[in-house]
Specification:
208 residues
Amino acid sequence: MTSEGEQAADPDHHLGAGDRPDPALGMDLSDIEAAEGFPRVPDAFQRLWTPHRMVYIGGQDKPKDSGPAECPFCAAPKKSDEEALIVARGETVYAVLNLYPYNPGHLLICPYRHVADYTELTPAETVELAEFTQKAMEVIRAVSGPDGFNLGMNQGEVAGAGIAAHLHQHVVPRWSGDANFLPIVAQTKALPQVHADVRAALSKEWNR
């Protein structure tokens, strides 16, 4: 244990009472006291601990915005539907679950071609992307009955595109009251279904 003087001089010693830093973040737990001895007030809230999200937030597992050889949207169609989380395949585009969804059923409509800008799509790709977006909405409505949708493309990194080099259209189902403090305060989203179950349900409905 370090002394109080050492803690005061150490700028990294800013943890409050009962805080438990994550060893995965490179923090030493050996000199941290257990929380049992500290005062606390019970409340009615349940705690959802999702430390695995820190890996993505910290950048370790974020996809790289790279060329076709390393692009996850180029690699996905070469895998099985189950492995790649693909819901449906078309002639020029395909529908795939977002690996880091905002809500259950969050789909991405992607062209097979590695193009970045909406203006680079061919007429055939533009039409099928629109048709797949409509179909995705119909399928998600039939499976989970959302109250609405967010549809859109983030064009360029400055606009928020996680993978700016390969265009993709977001289809995000929304429910009344689906937003809470978790994404804002904790950068965490509570998702009640695992990807495999969501993919299977959407794919079954898509091909009905």
